[in-house]
Structures are given as structure tokens and as C-alpha cells.
Amino acid sequence: QRHSQQDSHVQYERVGADVTMKCGSMDWDAAVTWTANGTDIDESHLNGSYLILKNVGLSQSGQYFCYEGSSWHLKYQTNLRVGTPPKEPVLMCRSNNYPKGFYCSWHLPTPTYIPNFFNISVIHGTKDMVCEKDSPPKNRCHIKYLQLFSTVKYKVTLTVTNALGKNFTTLTFDEFAIVKPDPPESVVAKPVPNNPRRLEVSWQNPSSWPDPESFPLKFFLRYRPLILDQWQHVELSDGTSHTITDAYAGKEYIIQVAAKDSDIGTWSDWSVAVHATPWTEEPKHLTTEAQITETTSVSTSSFMAPPTTKICDKGAMVGS
Amino acid sequence: MAAADSPSAALRRRDLCSRGIRLAGKMRADVVDLLDAYVEQQGLDASASVAAVEGVPLAAVERWDEQTGTQRLLENLAAYRAFRALLAQMLEEQREQLGEADAGLGRALAAVLLQVSAFAYHLEELLRLESRGIPGEEEDGPPPPPRLSRFEQKLRGLGVLRELAHWAVRSERQLAKPSPASGAAPGLAESP
Q1: Interface test with A, best of B64, B166, B167, B174 (most A CBs within 10 A)
Q2: Rounded to whole angstroms, how far apart are CA atoms A16 and B63?
Q3: Positions in chain A short of pLDDT 50
Q4: How far is it, in rounded angstroms, from Cα A89 to Cα A168?
Q5: Do residues A271 and A203 make contact, with C-beta atoms less than 8 angstroms apart?
Q6: Can you give the pLDDT at residue A319?
Q7: Beta strands in B2-143 (DSSP E)
Q8: pLDDT digit of tens for each residue in chain B (192 aa)?
Q9: Which residue among B28, B166, B176 sits closest to A151, beta carbon to beta carbon?
Q10: Residue B152's closest CA among B106, B89, B88?
Q11: Phi, psi of A154 (to 5 degrees)
């Protein structure tokens, strides 16, 4: 029967390290038994009462126990955590709700397999700014702008520490440079009755953009028939709708929209794609004989190749 | 407080506001282009941090949208008058050193100076509409910039153009943003 009276703790070791564990206060030549996660460890790993683990790997993480030979008293216990020191973290800062503030998010390029602790500092000129952290596990925090339109750069430093090491990264940026709205929302595309070459597209400002009146967004619309790879683009400096007037009749289209502050920052990601097919005339109800001849001629024409003009031909009108 | 608004005054203000917003937007784009050309031609580092240069109005503002309409106009006007003097100084220095070699930069500087002057006049018009007295030039005109070394002139120029680029965005937004209703002079873009 195994009795516990020992010192126990967590022991962190680097992948590839050689690890020696003593059995608490037991002498080198004392008779002992070592277990790992409940399994007895082979004598070949012992040097006297010391446990020797060479070139440890991740799989050797676990609970290690050492018992005194005859009385089975537990003399030593440790939780071995094998891992790596942190690499330079990847940090990104962005304002998708300008002019309210911006957020920074980060991640480690490779896992460390042991707990990591992040500390972020945001300095604007000489002023330290508070970065409100999201609850774990989200590696993100939010900063409110105290001043607007400032030419003084922001400096964000992220330090990551774990039991095996420490690393950091720094970002310096201008207030305007990190402005990037979220994609437009509620994108809808509809055929226009009696107009075989038109599609009506509408969308909304991203709900995260707090003041579109004072900080108007401009938009970029891209569309193409599914049968082609080449996108057509049109930039719209205001308004949240557009009518495509040069669609191929009867062809299904894929449409996306992006947004940008009218002056500063960068374009959002593309919105969710929507599909639509321009209006087509209902086939007429004919007598049987006429129908047969009609259908044969219609079926051959509907698979005609699209017109040969290049989409981006200088002469072709993009939108109207 | 401003005289009660006649419909024509309100329409005139809205017209001036929307034209002002467009002018600020155009100025912003031209200043950004000029800034790129200036950095390249002067051999400067685009990411260099430039300490606040004396006499250059800072665009940074706290609670930017809580100022009354008149406060905004007065602050904007003081800034663009200062930029007018600073750009004129830059243009003069430019011509002294480079002669025709950098005529392009000189022309771009002159074009921006023109826009800044036009925008300052625009702000004065808006203030008149608010029945506000226009502050005299000597009241808040900047002191003549001190004589600087060539490199200091370049850095000051960089600081001037950067602040002006940010001011243009600020002006656009402040002309577009209705000011708080309580006790404020009629907002810039409020409906009558």
C-alpha cells in the first residue's frame, strides 16, 4: 500500500533536455521504485535511486512518483512538463471601429506545450495607455483613443514569458494606418424584372463601424459570372447599393463587397459572397408541334459561348 | 449665440459645409502625395518620428466631437492660417535652394498652399454665417519661423506636411459631425 509523505511540484524541461530526478531525501544507493503516470519505470532508467531521462520528448510529460523500496512510502512526486521557450509572438493591431479605438491580437507562431503569460504595453508619445484584455483564451485587448487625428505614433510591445524563456515583439504605427473596417453586411443581389442584363446589389455598413455619417465609408464591388474567373470591379464613393448593368443574360453571378474609410486606412476583407442570376423571359406556351421545333432551336442557342469581348476591354463599360 | 437661422442661411451653411468637406478631402489627397514626394526628394525616412515642431499646429485633439461648432471653426481657422505661413516659408526656402531642379515639388507645394488659403477663407465664410467676428490675422497668426539649418528645415517641412495631412482629415470630420446641441452654436452640418 503506497503512502504519501513527500514534496511535489511542477517541473518544466525543454524538449531534448536530459533530466535527472532525485527521490526526495533518499540516498543514492537506497532501493526505490519510480512510476510514470502509474506505470513502473524500467530499471535501465535508474542510476542508483536517481531517475535519468535522456533527450526528453513531449510524450514524457506526466506525473512521476518515487516510492521507498520496502515500505512503499511515497518519497517524491513531480509533474513533469516538457515544452519549449516561446518564439517571437505575432502581433497585429487594427481599428475596425474608428474613431472609438483599436484592438491588438496576438498568437505564438508555434506551440510551447506549457502555459504562457502575455504582457502588453501601449505607449502613445509619452503616455501609457490601458489595454482592456478580453477574457482568456482570447489573446486580444482593446484600447480607447484618448486623442484623435494625432501624428504621434503608437508603440505596442508584447512580451511573452513561460517557465522556459521569454520573448517579445514591438509594433509602431500611425493612427490612420491601422484603420480597417469589417466587411459590409447583409449583402443582397436581385434580378431586375424585364432587364436581362441587370442585377441590383445592396448592402449595409458593418455594424462595428460606429459613425458612418462623420466617417463615411466607400465601397468596392466585385462580380463575375460563375463560368468565368475574371472579376469585374466598381468603386463607389457613397451609397450602399449599385445596379450592375452589363451582366451576361441568364448566367449566375457571384458578388462581393469591401469597405474602406473614405480617406484613411485600408480596405476591409471581402464580404460574404452572394449569388444571383439576371431576370430571364418566361418561355411562351406554344402548340405541341411549334413547341418541338422551338425547343430544338432554343436548346442549341442557350449553350452558345459568351461574347468574345474581353471584360476589361477599354470599350466595355463597367457598370453604367 | 448666433442669430436665429433663416432658411437661406442654413442652406448656405450646408452648401459651404459640404464644399468644405470635399475641399478638405481633396487637400488631404494632395498633401499625402506631396508628403511622399517630399520625403523622397529630401532623402528623409518616411517612418521617422518628428518631434512637435514649434509653431506647427497639432491636429491631435481630445474629445474631438464635443467642441461646439464655433470652437471647431476657430481652431481650424487658426491652424490653417498657421499652415499658410509655414507653407509660404517652405516654398521660399525651396526656391532659394533648388532653383528649377525641384520645380515639381515647388509647384505641388504652391498648389497645396493655394488649397490651404482657400480652405481658410472657407472657414471665415462659415464663421461669418455664424455671425461670429473673424479673428484678425495678427491675433493668432504664427510668429515668423526661426532661421533653421537645411536639415532642420527638412524635418520641419516633414512635420508641417504630416500635421496638415491629419488636420485635413480632422477638418473633414469636424465639418461633417453635428456638434452637441446643448448651448452650442448651430452645428456645422445640422439641418436648420
Answers
A1: B166
A2: 55
A3: 1-6, 289-320
A4: 6
A5: yes
A6: 36
A7: 61-62
A8: 344 567 777 788 788 888 888 999 999 999 999 999 999 888 888 777 777 677 899 999 998 888 888 888 999 999 999 999 999 999 988 877 765 557 788 889 999 999 999 999 999 998 888 776 777 775 555 556 566 788 888 888 999 999 999 999 999 998 887 766 433 433 444 433
A9: B166
A10: B89
A11: -95, 140
In chain B, % helix, strand, coil (3-state, to 5) comes to 65, 0, 35
d(CA A273, CA B136): 56
Distance from CA of A104 to the nearest CA of B (A): 21
Contact B59 A263 (CB under 8 A): no
- Of A87, A85, A46, the C-alpha closest to A64 is A46
Query: Mapping DSSP to helix (H, G, I), strand (E, B) and coil, where does residue B117 land?
Result: helix
Residue B80 has φ and ψ, to the nearest 5°, of: -75, -25
Q: Which cell numbers hold the place of B147? A: 532661421
> Are B10 and B192 within 8 A, CB to CB?
yes
B156 contact A CB<8A: no
Decide: B17 and B126 in contact? Cβ < 8 Å: yes
**Helical segments of A43-202, H only:** none
Which residues in chain A are closer than 8 Å to B166, comparing Cβ atoms? Answer: 149-151, 176
ipTM value: 0.84
Report pLDDT for B138: 57
Measured distance CA(A113)–CA(A124) in Å, rounded: 34
Degrees (nearest 5) of the Cα angle A36, A42, A45? 90
CB contact under 8 A, A151 and B60: yes
Query: Model's pTM, two decimal places?
Result: 0.81
